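Example record

Each entry pairs one chain with its bound ligand, sodium ion.
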Amino acid sequence: LSLASELREAIANERLSVEYQPIVDLADGRCRGAEALARWHREGDETIRPDVFVPLAEDTGQATDLTLAILRAILRDLGDNLRAHPEQAINLNITGHDLASDRFGDALRKALREAGVAPSAIKLELTERSLLNEDAIRARLRELRRRGHHIAIDDFGTGYSSLSYLERFELDTLKIDKTFADAIAHEAVTSNVIGHIIEMARSLNLQIVAEGIESAHQVEWLRAQGVEGGQGYHFSRPLSAEAFLDWCRQH
Ligand code: G
Ligand code: G
Ligand code: NA
Ligand code: MN
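Structure tokens for the complex follow.
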């Protein structure tokens, strides 16, 4: 069996699982939600990381099936919580393939309706790279947003795109890449760059979540800049659904 067909079976048989990394409100340290991170446990105890199987899914026409399988896993894991606390939103990673697909939007809507979960409880997280196929994607994003989803840009600052695209898309949140949080501890020069990113996000009315936070020093610096959200090992590693719910109750 090739790895691609094994992945197809894993998707069909719901053998993908999800870990949840908390996203906190930097102002008060409270749980705001989480990013859903896909995991594939192959037979024989091997865990394959999304860095490997997401590109594989994209290259073999399975990208949207994968995204929808992760969505179903989130709804199975956290449906009760999302119905009771829709403000603790879960970020679902999506790809350009999903936005280009004719069926993704309707399948997303149908799954949420059947689960009784509000669109605002599932934020859609995508990378700058996913926005490249501009015209097709802009209309799709606008429609998803009109239906109540919030849109976040992941790994911001690592792409090669010009900043002007931010103005052309309707977005809600910028997730600043870990490399910039790393720089807060060390390099004054790069910290300056993060300052400019924060300023630009402000001027575009975007919320900011800093990723890869590993120290209290970084939290202090970001909070002083008015950055709203944070994610990283300083708060928590990615957790099982149950551990995530416990973590949220304690925070
Ligand atoms: O969890 P980990 O550090 O291995 O994640 C690696 C990368 O894979 C991250 O950039 C994350 O955004 C991405 N990723 C995790 N889960 C998913 C998913 O369900 N779909 C997509 N498209 N990307 C994911
Ligand atoms: O590309 P994306 O930003 O979605 O990557 C998320 C991945 O980064 C997750 O798989 C997670 O395991 C990892 N990650 C999250 N927080 C931290 C952190 O504070 N430090 C490090 N080294 N990795 C992190
Ligand atoms: Na992501
Ligand atoms: Mn991320």
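The pocket of sodium ion (ligand 3) is lined by residues 35, 93, 125, 154 (CB under 6 Å).
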